[in-house]
Write a structure and sequence with these properties.
Shape: globular
Number of strands: 10
CATH topology of the largest domain: Jelly Rolls
Structural class: alpha+beta
GO biological process, one term: positive regulation of metabolic process
GO molecular function, one term: DNA-binding transcription factor activity
Radius of gyration: 20 Å
CATH architecture of the largest domain: Sandwich
Distance between the termini: 27 Å
Number of domains: 3
Order of helices and strands: HEEEEEEEEEHEHHHHHHHHHH
CATH class of the largest domain: Mainly Beta
Keywords: DNA-binding, Transcription, Transcription regulation
Protein name: AraC family transcriptional regulator
InterPro entries: Homeodomain-like_sf (IPR009057), HTH_AraC (IPR018060), HTH_AraC-typ_CS (IPR018062), Tscrpt_reg_HTH_AraC_N (IPR009594)
Strand content: 15-25%
Helix content: 40-55%
Largest sheet: 6 strands, antiparallel
């Protein structure tokens, strides 16, 4: 499909086509993967309060309805005209604002390939970034017709599974190019530039995700990514809306939640496994994050899972995308 002019009518037509495709494939509320690597769909039929999630580097499109992501107390609403993009792993809360059984909130998530972004930037031909400052790791961009058309072609491959291995990477590359041409280009460039602060923070986050149970010394982590401790702390908070210690705590508590829910560990065992020395401190911090003590939370989550016959839910998957 050739897009000559990016008009509201063209964008609306593409949004409707995406909504119809996703709604036809996801007939029950929840999240589901697809045969295309990194692509997932979601469907919600009622407004819902914020739930905890880990947002990977990704683009999230709402084809119908409206959602909002909360990061560090700041809300980022997005709908069919505005996409959500995140440039690194962010602890957040995802909220459904507009949805009904008659007009469900449906959309997609596509994980970003940071290596692909770096390759496209290195090839040149892209306009220079006007904003070289390091800002938050999440933003809202305008869903243009060329970007939506690329997603429409990607979804069309689901009806042609034999073509997915050959054509999907080409269309995904175009999507990454469109993002680098969008109003969110600077946010993505700051993470892929190896001499930039954003890239170093992303490397520190990678280390934290692998070593969350270990004692954290911020000075040592800053040195690991070749930054001074004050500079590291400043840019880490600017990008994630958390301090490094708060980020580690978030990782620990969510992993403990997973261990208690999926592997049936008791509270003390889960606390020790993720690096806590005091189960009482663990319970206090768990209650602050999730709003209820661990045992009560497990009872509620298991009851909810039983009510839905074990259907997948973002509430039951702490590391889920904000779908």
């Amino acid at each position: 499909m050739t897009i000559k002019h990016d008009t509201p009518a063209q964008s609306a037509s593409l949004q409707l086509a995406l909504a119809q495709t996703i709604a036809a494939r996801v007939t029950q509320p929840g999240d589901c993967g697809t045969p295309i690597a990194g692509l997932g769909f979601f469907r919600r039929e009622h407004p819902a309060p914020p739930v905890v999630c880990m947002v990977e580097p990704s683009i999230v499109l709402v084809a119908q309805g409206e959602k909002r992501l909360w990061v560090g107390g700041e809300g980022y609403p997005y709908d069919p005209s505005r996409f959500l993009v995140t440039s690194l792993d962010l602890p957040a809360n995802s909220e459904v604002l507009v949805a009904s059984p008659q007009q469900p909130c449906v959309g997609l998530t596509l994980k970003l390939d940071l290596r692909m972004l770096a390759e496209l930037i290195a090839q040149g031909g892209l306009p220079p970034s006007r904003d070289r400052s390091v800002g938050a790791g999440v933003g809202i961009g305008s869903a243009t017709a060329p970007l939506l058309a690329a997603f429409e072609r990607l979804l069309a491959l689901l009806d042609e599974p034999d073509a997915i291995p050959v054509l999907a990477p080409l269309i995904q590359r175009e999507i990454h190019y469109r993002l680098l041409m969008s109003d969110q280009a600077a946010r993505l460039r700051q993470i892929t530039s190896v001499d930039g602060q954003g890239y170093r923070i992303a490397k520190a986050i990678d280390w934290l995700k692998l070593n969350y149970a270990m004692p954290l010394r911020v000075e040592e982590l800053a040195a690991r990514v070749q930054m001074s401790a004050p500079t590291f702390h400043h840019h880490f908070r600017q990008l994630t809306a958390m301090s490094p210690l708060q980020y580690q705590k978030w990782l620990r508590l969510n992993e403990a939640r997973r261990l208690m829910l999926n592997e049936h560990l008791d509270v003390s065992s889960a606390a020790f496994k993720v690096g806590y020395e005091s189960p009482s401190q663990f319970s206090r911090e768990y209650s602050r994050l999730f709003g209820v003590p661990p045992k009560r939370d497990m009872t509620a989550l298991r009851g909810r899972a039983a009510d839905t016959d074990g259907a997948a839910s973002s509430v039951l998957a702490p590391a889920a995308l904000p779908g």
